[in-house]
Amino acid sequence: MSGERSRAPSKAQQSRHAARELAVQGLYQWQMTGKSITAVEAEFRSQVADEDLEDHENWHKVMEIADLALFHELLHNVADQRRELDAAIAPLLDRRLEDLDPIELAILRLGAYELSRRLEVPYRAVINEGVELAKSFGATDGHKYVNGILDKLASRLRSAEVSARRR
């Protein structure tokens, strides 16, 4: 026995995670289709009622538990601030922004937004969420890349918090 206890996530944590899952999927759709972010959000919300949707039951469950206010905030603010977020991410990359896997770009933008604007969320939580999202939606080993970039970004954007944690 390692002495560590595994805690189940609280309902609030599950709700925020579901909101981030939806936001990443929405950002991906927005990046790939060029539709307005408002149209993407409307499509996501309308899919709950679409019983013909292949994954209707899962979709309905996620939408039911998701913090929809957080989903809205993340989706719209990441889209609105993408240039600033991209400017923060780009210097940390080993390739051009355009060459990133689109889902990894969506996750990095979301992480950059939370690190720079949602200061009440601990930087480790932002990184962990990014890693989990990359494991769920990204390419094989994409989570390692996301982890490295978000860790570097946290050191730049939240240096005092990172330094205090590493002592």
From TrEMBL:
Native organism is Halomonas fontilapidosi
SUPFAM superfamilies recorded for this chain?
NusB-like (SSF48013)
| Name of a matching Pfam family | NusB
Family according to the record: Belongs to the NusB family.
Q: Which GO terms describe its molecular function?
A: RNA binding
Please give the name of this protein: Transcription antitermination protein NusB
Among NCBIfam families, the record links this protein to: nusB
Single GO biological process annotation from the record: transcription antitermination
Q: Does the keyword Transcription regulation apply?
A: yes
**Record keywords:** RNA-binding, Transcription, Transcription antitermination, Transcription regulation
Q: Name one GO cellular component term.
A: cytosol
